[in-house]
Specification:
The complex is a heterodimer of chains A (652) and B (278). In chain A, 57% of the residues lie in helices and 15% in strands. Chain A is an alpha/beta fold and 652 residues long. In chain A, helix 2 packs antiparallel against helix 3, helix 4 runs parallel beside helix 5 and helix 15 runs parallel beside helix 16. About 7% of the residues of chain A have low confidence. Classes of the chains: A alpha/beta (652), B alpha/beta (278). Chains A and B meet through helix 3 of A and helix 6 of B.
Chain lengths: 652, 278
């Protein structure tokens, strides 16, 4: 529910408020009725009645005052009228006129001015033509009307009380019958949303509410059933996913192990200078296919991690010129092999930093560059340019002059295993690179887009959040700006020997570790016989001596009987694994009285799924290994790792 | 209204007669008549306590008889209905002449004097201006207010007037105040008893000669000894403060002994010529 909805809901009146408003309106209506109609009406009726009564009294008084008037015996008249006025509260004053119109009573002046509450009533004394005189009476009904109104007020007050009590009763009943059950149901809804399906339902006092409660109860039971099955489905899916991950991990291990041999041996064989050109081409083909297979396994692993949400990215400010420089270096040989020129256009200092995971960004850029190279034409061109994107983003654009793709294909291009029909046949690839790239960019809070004109070229844009340039980076940029133009123009040409096909391999051959004849003795624990052979060959080619054992137990007993300079152990072995072996060795070392004894241990594994390089390394460090290798590896990598392990020993 | 008073008086006579017949053997009983110049109720409430006191002093019983009007009262004392009676001075003369009633007690404080009033804003200043006019009087034989006034206006001033009898003194004053009569005869005492508003509307232009105040008279059938006893008892009662208060209600401010000679002087004032006999 949005905040505006909540606000709107809060503004809506409660049942109690509505009832109170109705009470007040009804009371006002009754009050108005009383004030505007009932009371005036009552006053009018009472006044009329009292006037009539006063007139009747005057008429009755007539004969008794006629005699004194006729006989001039005014004392009787005065006595009588004085007493009458004294006795009657409503009579204010009386005037008696004789037949000639002369005032007989009272003796003084007659006050003809009336107050608002006074009324004048008059009657003849005797009847025409023998009229003896006239009587005029001023009555004041204020007291009588006041008395009458007092009763009305009491009645009104009683009416108000009755209405108030009735309405309060109705309100209380409504609260008990409707509000409280509805609030109870609301709570039940809330608790149900939190997963509590047993919250006590309110007691219904009316049929409508009991229907409501009953239907809610039924709905809740059904929802509970749905939820239970959903949970079951989720659990099943998670289990299936786990099974898949296990399968992927196992497959990765199982594939990497033979790949290790294929790549290792083909690499070693290529170092043999006595090979005929034909043999060299065949070995290179084997090696290339092995790399391709490894790439495939890695990409499938990435996809698998992305799907199981286990791929993590560490966002940090990344200096684009460095990353693009590295990507350029890594893909230049490949571009050269495809007779394609690769150019990184100058980067403006204002857009040189983005928020990204540097390794993953490199992976994505290399993927885009590889595609741009692969799907290009002879003498084609690939450009990398960086510019400011919308709303504080930076856009890294890879543009090529390749074969391009149709609008329809644009929509499918980021789907996994969706290879463009036309090119699929001509170009080798897994078809999941772009899919992985897209999801990695999205993990880095960015986006990736593709545009293409068929036959003209295509353009891929990575949009990432711009990062603030740190002081050191900013210095670097300034330095670069001072010393040379910031733009790096890398031009790959056929003339460049670095860009010859298989230059990677050539470099590996040339850079085989120079530390020969150290004659250091390495114990190798490896259960796979082919890999044993590969280790032996590689180590010997590097000038090491080695002794092979098939598992951890054997290694442990061999170590006890003889002195070795280093232990190279596979992690997954029968009987005793590499990490357990390391732990035993390290605990044995710490038990020794002689301090400073430290056997360098290098662990290696083909398992890159659960025990990927980082976590495998962590587990290894925990166990006490000095270095870690992921199969398959090249001889140069092995040489580097051994170097670092020995240097660690020296530092101990 | 008058019928009611009549009935009440008859009822009282009947009640008194019954009580008298029941106790006649044991004590002497006297009838008492009072001139009806006030309302019956007023007379009764004034006289009954006095008679009760007199009864306890003398050992005799006294029965009050009130006539509805002056005419019947005059007829009653001329027949000798009352053993003791309270009346005006001229009545005392008539009562002596007809039955031989003897005055025993009178008010010694002041003498009675009639007054002639006109409207306060009237131009009349002298009685001579009232010749051949209508003048209001309470009743024909009211002594000072009417009988003496009419006698003096005729005999001393030679005026011819038309009397209008309006029964009571207040009616006389009201007639003058309302302008219904040019003048009216009354007595000072009753005029002063009127509301100030009424007094302010009239003025006195003439006063009569003084006469002795109303006496209490006794029928000659009562022995001289009994007469003296009653007279003394009355004077004794008046000597006490409570008794004086009872006399004040009659009204009789200062009771004192009365003598026949004081009243017989009235015979020379030619009142008889103007007395209206029943």
């Amino acid at each position: 529910m949005s905040p505006t909805d909540k606000e709107r809901m809060k503004r809506r009146p409660t049942l109690l408020q509505i009832s109170t408003a109705i009470c007040v309106i009804f009371s006002l209506f009754v009050a108005m009725l009383m004030v505007l109609f009932v009371i005036p009406q009552q006053i009018s009726i009472v006044e009329t009645r009292l006037d009539n009564a006063a007139r009747q009294s005057l008429v009755r008084l007539g004969p008794s005052v006629a005699d004194p008037i006729l006989t001039s015996q005014y004392e009787f008249l005065y006595d009588q009228l004085n007493k009458q006025i004294e006795n009657d509260d409503t009579w204010v004053r009386i005037q008696v006129l004789d037949a000639t119109g002369q005032q007989i009573y009272p003796l003084g002046e007659w006050d003809s001015v009336l107050t608002p509450s006074q009324r004048l009533v008059s009657a003849a004394i005797g009847s025409a033509p023998n009229l003896t005189g006239r009587l005029a009476l001023v009555v004041d009904h204020e007291f009588a009307i006041g008395e009458s109104l007092r009763i009305t007020y009491i009645l009104t007050a009683a009416l108000f009380l009755i209405i108030a009590f009735t309405l309060i009763g109705v309100v209380l009943f409504l609260q008990a019958a409707i509000s409280r059950p509805v609030i109870g149901l609301t709570s039940a809804f809330k608790f149900m949303a939190k997963g509590d399906f047993d919250y006590a339902l309110p007691q219904a006092r009316t049929r409508e509410i009991s229907y409501l409660v009953q239907e809610f109860s039924r709905f809740r039971r059904r929802t509970f059933g749905y939820q239970a099955s959903l949970i079951q489905l989720k659990d099943d899916a998670e289990q299936a996913n786990e099974a898949k991950s296990r399968f992927m991990s196992r497959m990765s291990h199982e594939l990497r192990t033979p790949l290790n041999s294929v790549l290792g041996f083909s690499e070693l064989a290529l170092t043999d200078s006595k090979l005929s050109p034909e043999q060299r081409r065949q070995l290179e083909a084997i090696n290339q296919s092995g790399h391709h297979l490894l790439e495939l396994v890695n990409e499938i692993l990435d996809l698998s991690r992305l799907e199981s949400d286990t791929l993590e990215v560490n966002l940090e400010p990344v200096y684009l010129p460095d990353i693009l420089d590295q990507c350029h270096s890594m893909t230049t040989p490949f571009a050269a092999s495809h007779k394609v020129s690769l150019t990184v256009l100058p980067i403006d200092p204002s857009v040189c930093c983005v928020l990204a995971d540097p390794l993953r960004l490199k992976q994505v850029v290399i993927n885009l560059l590889s595609n741009a190279i692969k799907y290009n034409q002879d003498n084609g061109r690939v450009y990398v340019e960086v510019e400011a994107g919308a709303s504080n983003t930076v856009c890294i654009r890879v543009r090529d002059t390749g074969i391009g793709f149709t609008q329809q294909e644009t929509e499918q291009i980021f789907a996994p295993f969706e290879r463009l029909s036309k090119s699929a046949a001509a170009v080798d690839g897994t078809g999941i690179g772009l899919s992985i790239s897209k999801r990695i960019v999205e993990l880095m809070n960015g986006s990736i887009d593709a545009h293409s004109v068929e036959g003209v070229g295509s353009e891929f844009s990575i949009n990432l959040k711009a990062a603030a340039v740190s002081a050191s980076e900013s210095d670097k940029i300034l330095d670069a700006a001072c010393c040379k133009p910031i733009h790096h123009l890398y031009e790959a040409t056929e003339a460049d020997p670095e860009l010859q096909p298989d230059s990677n391999l050539s470099r590996a051959q040339n850079e085989i570790h120079p530390v020969l004849a150290t004659n250091l003795h390495i114990r190798v624990a490896e259960d796979n016989e082919i890999n044993q052979l590969l280790f032996q060959t590689q180590l010997e080619s590097l000038g090491y001596r080695c002794t092979l054992v098939a598992d951890g137990l054997e290694a442990l007993s061999a170590l006890e009987s003889a002195q070795y300079d280093l232990l190279l152990t596979d992690i997954s072995m029968p009987n005793l694994g590499g990490l357990e072996l390391t732990k035993k060795i390290r605990s044995g070392e710490s038990a020794l009285k002689e301090k400073g004894v430290h056997m360098p241990i290098v662990a290696c594994s083909a398992n890159a799924m659960n025990d990927d390089q980082a976590s495998g390394f962590d587990a290894g460090v925990d166990a006490g290994v000095d270095a870690y290798l992921t199969k398959p590896f090249q001889t140069t990598q092995l040489a580097d790792v051994l170097d670092s392990a020995f240097s660690a020993k020296q530092s101990v | 209204m008058f019928n009611q008073f009549d009935n009440l008086a008859k009822l009282m006579v009947l009640t008194a007669a019954l009580s008298f017949s029941a106790s006649s053997a044991a004590e002497t009983s006297y009838t008492v008549g009072v001139v009806p110049q006030f309302a019956t109720q007023t007379i009764s409430s004034t006289w009954e306590p006095l008679l009760t006191e007199l009864s306890s002093q003398t050992g005799a019983s006294f029965r009050l008889i009130i006539e509805p009007d002056i005419t019947q009262f005059e007829a009653a004392f001329e027949r000798g209905d009352y053993d003791i009676a309270y009346m005006n001075p001229w009545h005392a003369v008539i009562a002596f002449e007809t039955q031989g009633y003897i005055p025993i007690v009178k008010d010694g404080a002041k003498s009675l004097k009639g007054v002639l009033i006109v409207k306060a804003d009237s131009a009349i200043t002298d009685v001579s201006e009232l010749d051949n006019t209508e003048i209001a009087f309470p009743s024909p034989n009211a002594l000072s207010a009417s009988l003496l006034m009419r006698t003096e206006l005729a005999t001393l001033h030679g005026l011819t007037i038309t009397p209008l009898y309006v029964r009571t003194h207040p009616s006389v004053y009201l007639n003058v105040a309302l302008g219904k009569s040019l003048a009216g005869g009354g007595v000072l005492r009753t005029l002063r008893a009127q509301p100030q508003s009424l007094q302010d509307q009239v003025k006195i232009i003439y006063e009569t000669r003084e006469v002795s105040p109303h006496p209490i008279v006794a029928h000659p059938s009562i022995s001289a000894e009994a007469r003296l006893k009653i007279a003394n008892a009355l004077l004794d009662i008046a000597a006490e403060p409570e008794g004086a208060a009872l006399f004040a209600g009659i009204p009789m401010q200062q009771p004192t002994s009365a003598y026949l000679e004081e009243y017989l002087a009235l015979r020379d004032w030619r009142l008889r010529e103007f007395y209206v006999a029943n």
